[in-house]
Design brief:
Length: about 170
């Protein structure tokens, strides 16, 4: 799909069919995510694929935004690997994860797979459920599935509210 069509097509999909996305499609999405740039190419991210029905059920205790998705990705980054800016020690790992997350949702859109980025969660609970060690920051969950309905495209601010030339 042409890039500008693709970014116009993506929206947060919150209703999925009961069908799990195909393994080949998931692999394509994961391959696409691996092309994302990261600071100093340190690649601190890990992507946890949650498809086990028991774990998906448990995950509902960590967030109410699972939308009964059959495939949920959890993007985390290792703070021992991520780039920390020398001057102020700022950790850019979540920035890396945000780009990875973007690559994932756009790749999904290109395959006609719906997605929703979810950050509203009890990350302590999610950490426990997914057995994530303390050196990782949990950056996002991404629900994936075939959309049940036509998507609704959200509005945006006008560009002149966002862009300033200085
Ligand atoms: C960092 C981030 C966190 C988000 N967290 C949630 C969430 O917890 N639950 C949810 O339903 N949507 C979540 N969203 C989706 C946003 O609500 C959605 O992207 C926004 O309303 C714009 O709509 P659109 O994605 O359909 O264009 C999140 C999106 C981003 C980028």
């Amino acid at each position: 799909m042409e890039y500008f069509d693709l970014i116009n097509k993506r929206y947060s999909c919150r209703e999925y069919t009961d069908e799990k996305i195909k393994k080949e499609e998931l692999n394509k999405i994961l391959e696409a995510s691996n092309l994302a740039p990261t600071a100093v190419n340190f690649q601190p991210q890990k992507i946890l694929v949650i498809e086990n029905p028991e774990t998906l059920k448990e995950l509902k205790e960590g967030t109410k935004y699972t939308f009964n998705s059959k495939t949920i990705l959890c993007v985390i980054h290792d703070t021992n690997v991520s780039w920390h800016r020398y001057r102020d020690q700022r950790d850019f790992g979540s920035f890396d994860s945000a780009i990875v997350t973007t690559y994932i949702v756009l790749a999904a859109t290109n395959l006609n797979i719906g997605s929703c980025i979810v950050c509203s969660m009890d990350d302590k609970k999610v950490r426990e459920i997914l057995n994530i060690s303390d050196n990782y920051v949990i950056d996002s969950l991404i629900t994936l599935g075939y959309p049940k309905n036509e998507g609704k495209i959200n509005s945006r601010k006008n560009l002149d509210e966002i862009v300033e030339y200085r």
